[in-house]
Specification:
- It catalyses: glycerol + NAD(+) = dihydroxyacetone + NADH + H(+).
- Pathway: Polyol metabolism; glycerol fermentation; glycerone phosphate from glycerol (oxidative route): step 1/2.
- Glycerol binds at residues 121, 171, 254, 271.
- By secondary structure, the protein is an alpha/beta fold.
- The protein folds into 2 domains: 10-158, Rossmann fold (3-Layer(aba) Sandwich); 162-354, Dehydroquinate synthase-like - alpha domain (Dehydroquinate synthase-like, alpha domain), CATH 1.20.1090.
- It contains 15 helices and 8 strands.
- A hairpin with a 5-residue loop joins strand 6 (127-131) and strand 7.
- 53% of the residues are buried.
């Protein structure tokens, strides 16, 4: 199997980075589809329009709200095609960025992602998630290539509610351990290739940064004032985590996001918090003897991540719910990236130990 590493062409981060949007957008033509949710459009729309107009870039706004379903994608693609846009600028949280990826894939054009929260590492990746009409995960789709430019304004990120940042910590902390399992067991990354060493090194650096600076960065979340620790952790959560998972591969922690929503009380739990709990279950199943599980529990307490199903929102999960969650988890592609073949009983028992 060939080793494959993928990444955006440019990653730009810092307070005030949004001010460079018009200059970068102008590199790809004079008309862009702006994919943005209504809340972010109300907050940043006029500023974005002015920044692009200053560089002679005309915007066709495509507003997205709610889950990204196949019908929603079809509607957005039709609007984008009718607009004559030659590029896509996606601004907002994970769902707006996913919608932008779906449109960019349809138009076969450049994509600029501008995250307004750091709740996950979607800004750097080519993946996007589709849901059905019942809000259940339907499929994970892929652009041919990663976004061309990722523009991360840390002043904007620091102004978002702190719970988004906490979810980003949870999504990122698993990547070292998942990449290890994938590489150790011959798994494939998101490019259907073998994980290169570079991806593991990025995932390792991500974990070190989170453990060193996560609590201090969490204290700055929501303040609107990015600190040096906040800058480092944002880079870890978006860039290191994004490249670490996409080129390094995933394992049990992310596979569990297929099953956990079927447990009562967890359907609406943020992705990153599900991953955080899933990591503890994965490390339990690894039967580690290095003290990492205890260290992470202590760090979770510092930053406010859930360490049990109850803390995640499941009051009293039944054995049937845990069994169903385990069965669905093991159907995920990533579940095979593990030191041994797991059965539903072993995984359900591990979930029970974290109830």
């Amino acid at each position: 199997m060939l080793k494959i590493f993928g990444a955006p062409s440019r990653y730009i981060q810092g307070a005030g980075a949004l001010d460079a949007l018009g200059r970068y957008a102008a590199l790809f033509g004079g008309r862009a589809a702006l994919v943005i949710d209504s809340h972010v459009r109300a907050l940043l729309g006029p500023r974005i329009e002015a920044l692009c107009a200053a560089h002679q870039v005309e915007l066709a706004a495509l507003t997205v709200d709610g889950d990204l379903t196949p019908d929603a994608v079809a509607g957005l693609r039709a609007q984008a095609a009718a607009s004559g846009a030659g590029m896509v600028i996606a601004v907002g949280g994970g769902k707006a960025l996913d919608a932008g990826k779906a449109v960019a894939r349809s138009l076969h054009c450049h994509l600029i992602t501008v995250p307004t929260v750091a709740s996950n590492d979607a800004p750097t990746s080519k993946n996007y998630v589709l849901y059905d009409s019942h809000h259940q995960l339907l499929a994970v789709e892929h652009m041919l290539f990663n976004p061309t430019i990722v523009l991360v304004d840390t002043a904007v990120i620091a102004s978002a509610p702190a719970h988004f940042f906490r979810a980003g910590l949870g999504d990122a902390v698993s990547k070292k351990f998942e990449a290890e399992q994938c590489r150790r067991n011959g798994g494939m990354n998101m490019y259907d290739g073998a994980p290169p060493l570079a991806a593991q090194f990025l995932a390792d650096g991500c974990l070190r940064t989170l453990l060193a600076d996560g609590a201090e960065a969490m204290a700055a979340a929501g303040s609107g004032q990015p600190t040096p620790a906040f800058e480092r952790v944002v880079e870890a959560m978006i860039l290191m985590s994004g490249l670490g998972f996409e080129s390094g591969g995933l394992s049990i922690a992310h596979a569990l996001t297929r099953g956990l929503p079927r447990i009562g009380g967890l359907a609406g739990a943020p992705h990153g918090l599900q991953v955080a709990l899933g990591l503890l279950v994965q490390l339990d199943l690894e039967q580690r003897a290095d003290g990492m599980l205890a260290d992470l529990r202590q760090w979770y307490a510092q930053v406010g991540l859930p360490a049990t199903l109850r803390e995640l929102g499941a009051a009293d999960p039944s054995d049937a719910e845990l069994a169903l969650a385990a069965e669905l988890t093991l159907k995920a592609r990533h579940a095979a990236n593990f030191d041994r073949a797991l059965d539903a009983g072993a995984l359900a028992a591990a979930l029970r130990r974290h109830a």
